[in-house]
Amino acid sequence: MAYTPPPTPPSPTGSGVPAATRWYRKPGPVFLVVLMVACAIAIPVMFVLLGSDDGGGAAGTSTAAEFTTMAESTSVVTATTAPDQSPSTTDVPPTPEELAAAEFEADVLLIQYLWQGYSASWSGGLQTGAQYIAAHNYPGFPCSAGDWWAYYRDELGWQDGDGEEVAVHAGTIERQDDWDWVIPASYPNAGERPQGRIYTMTVDSTTRVAGAAESHAWDIHATVIGSSAYFFFECE
Asked: How confident is the model over 143-165, as a mean pLDDT?
């Protein structure tokens, strides 16, 4: 028996043409809708991510800069406050030779001032000259200012207005610890060697008495005790 296919079904009632397919059932429009939704979601996300990257980069740069600044500041402070380990010449004590040279220079100045004061003292008359000698003569020598005033007036015949100028030659001042002079018998501590740092020197002396000037050169001694210089003017 031969096969006969079924008859074609009739078209829906009231339609002369086949019915049209709805848009949401077509693949093209659906794809466009999906693409638009994806773009709407992706674009803000990309801005967020890019903004986050920039912020993170800026933050990282700022942090790195702050760290560098802190490191530099720490380095500066360390370099400023670190103790100096280099040797200093002020830490080296002076040698005995250097101490002796400094002491000698100071003593020479004291001796020069001693004679300068002696020369200037006579400008005030016999009394001031006698007072200066008594104040600057070797400690313990018995003569007072009155004794010296009487000596210059009565024995030497000086009057007010007379006097003596002494110029010491600094180049002749020398230390003489072996000076063999001893304190005279009539003085306190008789027979003892004088104290202090003994110096010998040459001086030029010019006396002016009653208008007449007379000059001499003398080899004479002085001593320095502590920070004061003294004569060795003997009086009997």
From this structure: 95
